[in-house]
Write a structure and sequence with these properties.
With about 230 residues, the chain is α/β, with parallel strands linked by helices. The chain has six helices and seven strands. It has helices at about 15-25, 55-70, 95-120, 145-160, 180-185, 195-210; strands at about 5-10, 30-35, 45-50, 75-80, 125-130, 165-175, 220.
Length: about 230
């Protein structure tokens, strides 16, 4: 990981922060992109690009190009930016489907599209997307979210085939991530069975590493302890 330049979207969220810190500890340089305002000043090892709507292709391209200029290259993209909504089809609103599509699929699509030329120029270009185990078979109330994450799964597979030999493209499919927000939403759940951000970060960073050079097009469930 030493010297690699990673773009991490959703870098200021619960998972994004853990992935960022873990990658920095391994010697990577990080460009964090987020909808929230930047929280740290730019350094030789880290830059935060805040206030970006990655569902807008032009803003995604501008942010990626800023990261590439700052570091002189991009070796990997980790698409963490996204959102969740629980809403049944009959009682819900069509706008929720549009919002999930924008937050989960368009953010990954736009950032990947902007980063691909830089990744292809790297000797070890990588994309890691965040899918969802819940998108493999949608339950009640999971329609909008599962549909958008299923789109991420198909995007991952298509990109892996289109860029094989140039950029590896994989996705991790977490169950429920053990975050403060999820604990507040599901206070009676057994948190010990959830996957932690640290566990998920380890899988993500493996897929970014040189050791994963032969892995592409994989959808990898990460369910935590059972």
């Amino acid at each position: 990981m030493q010297g690699k330049v990673l773009i991490v979207t959703g870098a200021l969220g619960a998972l994004g922060k853990v992935v960022t810190e873990a990658a920095l500890a391994r010697g990577a340089r990080i460009a964090g992109i987020d909808h929230a305002p930047s929280q740290v000043a730019a350094t030789a090892e880290r830059i935060e690009i805040g206030g970006v709507d990655l569902s807008d292709a032009a803003q995604a391209k501008t942010a990626v190009e800023a990261a590439a200029r700052h570091f002189g290259k991009v070796d990997a993209l980790v698409n963490i930016a996204g959102g969740f909504a629980f809403e049944t089809v009959g009682d819900g609103d069509i706008t929720t489907w549009h919002r999930m599509h924008a937050l989960n699929l368009l953010t990954a699509l736009n950032t990947s599209h902007a980063a691909l030329p830089h990744l292809a120029a790297s000797k070890a270009g990588r994309i890691v997307n965040i899918g969802a185990m819940g998108a493999l078979q949608a339950g009640s109330g999971m329609g909008p979210y599962a549909a958008s994450k299923a789109g991420v799964h198909r995007l991952t597979e298509a990109l892996a085939n289109e860029w094989k030999g140039k950029v590896t493209v994989n996705a991790v499919l977490p169950s429920i991530i053990d975050t403060r927000a999820n604990r507040a939403d599901m206070p009676t759940a057994d948190f010990a069975k959830w996957v932690t951000p640290q566990e998920l970060a380890e899988v993500i960073l493996f897929l970014v590493s040189d050791a994963a050079s032969g892995v592409t097009g994989a959808l990898i469930p990460v369910s935590g302890r059972v």
